[in-house]
Amino acid sequence: MNSSCVARCCLAAALILCVGALSGCSGLVKLSSDLRETTRDIRLVSGTVTSPVCRDCETIVVVFSDEAGQTVDNYRVFERPGMFRLAALATSRYLFAFQDLNGDFEFQPDEPSGWFDLRDASFFFGQAENVEIKLSVDAGRAMPARLGNLFELRGSTLGRVDVQLGKPARLDDARFSPEAAAMGMWQPLRFMKEGYAGIYFLEPYAADKTPVLFVHGIGGSPRDLEDIIAALDRRRFQPWLMNYPSGLDIRALGDGLVGLLAELRHRFGFAELHLVAHSMGGIVVREYLAECARSDGCGYVRRFISISVPFGGDSAARLGVEYAPVVMPVWRSLASDGTFIKRLFDEPLPDGVTQFLVFGFRNTATLRSASGDGVIPLASQLRPEAQLQARALRGFDEDHMSILANPHVVRYIKGVLEGR
Predict the structure, then answer these.
(1) Could you give the CA distance from residue 47 to residue 36 in angstroms, rounded to a whole number?
(2) Structure pTM?
(3) Domain range for residue 104?
(4) Which of 115, 179, 285, 364 is most buried per CB count within 10 Å?
């Protein structure tokens, strides 16, 4: 690749990530290494779980390295039997699914269960599809002897695809630092191996408070939303922080969020949840809501507040896909002419979800001439489908990041959450 193409690739990274061109180019080396490791070590398994016992009970799919259940590589909670998808390690050997009828995150011998031997699966490019697990009260083989409380394994003994759930945190934690955020873009697998990914609590769970999940944008962290979080009425609401590797494919992030919130709801039983998302975080949430609509799930979601979100994608991501020697997976998701963005609104918002769309229109950037917030053009923030699904639209004379600290924006979001 000649120097002009390299410069153009770096410009794409700079426009999307709000970082310097030099750091974007140096990150490609790290990205290439991380993607090779991901391809070598991680596999994706999908299929169907069926149960004749209960068609509307939470179902847990567990990935084992051994039949005795001594090593749990990963697990995922689903609201009910049906389609499933989760990550496994290249060394994983078994899937074990069961319906957690008593909600204790532990398998009981009288709970419907079933096995699948991954050695019988056909993997193509690291993926195995059409896996079928049939549950019954008699699985026909020995039960895993060492399968204890799964929720307690989070952040301790799970494999490298682990994420943290419900762990206490502070906004000044190292996992929310700019350095960690950059790692999430350029080295998403390392970000997860370091234990940074997950949904964190700023205070212990309280059943009498409604959770508000805050979702940052690409190259960002929950610190970006600090002013909005600080204004939250802690007597009524509890802030939850999603910290994710923003270089990953958005479809995978949205699908993963379905599983994480299903697990937290199975654990805590909350009745309602609100979502506040900035920039690309709003695309992650919109894809999450599309997954909810496809599975007829997530009936607990109420308000979705999107801030400066590129609902129409970004042309800079298209440049990254076209010219970069190594393509960050999220660029394919964000490309304005890509299939993912074009189909983002194919599914309506689930019943009970109300969206409030916040956008910025101060453009002081030298690299962006179109109307917008200096990073995301207005045409993308105000994609017609996004406007049609929103209950209200509110614009502010701020750029892509300053909008998060504007007191009028903070007050508006606070009022929406409080139903005013």
Answers:
(1) 25
(2) 0.90
(3) 51-153
(4) 285
Burial (Cβ within 10 Å: 0-12, 13-18, ≥19) of residue 109: exposed
Contact by Cβ (8 Å): 106, 147? yes
> Do 106 and 83 fall within a single domain?
yes
Beta bridge partners of 96: 62, 115
What's the domain count of the chain?
Answer: 3
Tokens of 305: 């507040």
Sign of CA dihedral 6, 12, 15, 18: negative
Q: Are residues 263 and 200 located together in one domain of the fold?
A: yes
pLDDT digits (tens, 9 = 90+) for 151-171: 888 866 566 667 899 999 999
Cα separation of 319 and 324, whole Å? Answer: 8
The helix-helix angle for 21-41 and 178-186 (nearest 10°) equals 60
**pLDDT tens digits, residue range 188-242?**
988 988 889 999 999 999 999 999 999 999 999 999 999 999 999 999 999 999 9
Question: Among all chains, which residue has been given the structure tokens 């999220």?
Answer: 330
The DSSP bridge pattern shows strands 42-50 and 59-64 to be: unpaired
Residues 105 and 172 in one domain: no
Q: Is residue 45 part of a domain?
A: no
Scanning the structure block, which residue is given the tokens 């770096």? 10
Residues 356 and 228 in one domain: yes
HEC assignment per residue over the chain: CCHHHHHHHHHHHHHHHCCCHHHHHHHHHHHHHHHHHHHHHEEEEEEEEECCCCCCCCEEEEEECCCCCCCEEEEEEECCCEEEEEEEECCCCEEEEEECCCCCCCCCCCCCEEEEEHHHCCCECCEEEEEEEECECCCCCCCCCCCCCCHHHCCCCCCCCCCEEEEECCCCCHHHCHHHHHHHHHCHHHHHHCCCCEEEECCCCCCCCEEEEEECCCCCCHHHHHHHHHCCCCCCEEEEEEECCCCCCHHHHHHHHHHHHHHHHHHHCCCCEEEEEECHHHHHHHHHHHHHHHHCCCCCEEEEEEECCCCCCEHHHHHHHHHCCCCCHHHHHHECCCHHHHCCCCCCCCCCCEEEEEEECCCCCCCCCCCECCCCEHHHHCCHHHHHHEEEEEEECCCCCHHHCCHHHHHHHHHHHCCC
